Amino acid sequence: MIINSILHMADLHLGAKNLRLPADKQKILTQEKLDALADVFLQPCDIALICGDLFHSSVVSQKIMKNFFKQVERFAKPVLYICGNHDEKTNFSDTPTNFHVLNEQNNVFRTENIDFWCASSDYKNFDENKKNVLLLHGSISNKTDHDYLDLTKILTKKFDYVALGHEHNFWQGQTNSARLVYSGSLFSNGFDECGQKGYVLIDCKDFIPNFHPLKQRLFKILNISVSDISDFYKLKIKFQEQLANEKQNVVRVVFSGYYQEGQKLNFDMLKSNYDGFYLEFVDKTKMKIDIEKYKNEPLSFKAEFIKLVEEADLSEEDKNKILRVGIEALQGDDLSL
Fold first, then answer.
1. In order of start, what are the domains of the chain with their CATH numbers?
2. Is the pLDDT confidence value at 317 over 90?
3. Which H or E element spans position 203?
4. pTM for the whole structure
5. Which phi-psi region, left, alpha or beta, contains residue 27 (left: φ > 0; alpha: ψ -120 to 50)?
6. Cβ-proximal residues to 7 (8 Å cutoff; 6+ apart), any chain
7. Are 228 and 197 in contact (CB under 8 A)?
8. Residue 138 DSSP label
9. What confidence tens digit (pLDDT) does each residue in 211-260 have?
10. 107, 22, 35: which is closest to 67 by C-alpha?
11. Average pLDDT along the chain
């Protein structure tokens, strides 16, 4: 079997749930991920690599597992897998014949022109006359990560391509002869994973990775400042403009900025006519602080605090910062730190 092209993906985290979303939305997202997998396995390639965290945990529903392995069976070409930190205890005993788990006991999958390896203490019968690909799962940059990978100890042989999993964004680099590539996660599972997710296709002539975003709902964070908005009508217009093209996505709107005392807007009213997939709000707005007003309040902690700060031997910039944080603390607001 000659390999001309490779499909590289990782961190599918099938079975992961975003508990912020209602159960019906979670169910829809799960089904959409399973449907999208069918498209991924239709890509023109000779072999597929999955570099860890196929499942979110070792406990995964039979429906998800059966659906995934049905796609693997239809793919009909080899699918190579190494375990990640989330699914290292998963039992892969009943799988299609074209699904191969690489581990210490079975650390290489050989083809006519390329050998595929997992990290091993012994790369036995390593053939430098062929191309060699290494599958890894872990962090190559963060030494404090529990799953840190020390490449100086792992890359003891000449690899042409190192297929990585664990980091959820696409990245590529180079070390000696090896091209290092994180495909990123295949799907987004939360607002900490915004942006395009997908897979990588590699032409084995040069091993240059081509990232392909997977068409799917995105987790999006939108920011709306209320500092220049004085009434609900203006807020509604700005809100509609921001969300005009986001109805299919999973959206969080973060409201920020300052409002005049007594003019705080009711953001929840914006949800009444919204017909998108999912929407949530985070309110980070603060009331505008009128220092002159508080300074003249009788028998006031705020007035005494302002007096002490203004008499301190500090720069005007430092005084302004301290006054804002102090007044926010006395009002019980989140602090502008």
1. 5-213 (3.60.21.10), 219-287 (3.40.50.12060), 291-331 (no CATH)
2. no
3. strand 198-203
4. 0.83
5. alpha
6. 40, 43, 45, 47, 48, 49, 199, 200, 201, 202
7. no
8. S
9. 999 999 999 999 999 888 878 888 899 999 999 999 999 999 999 988 87
10. 35
11. 88
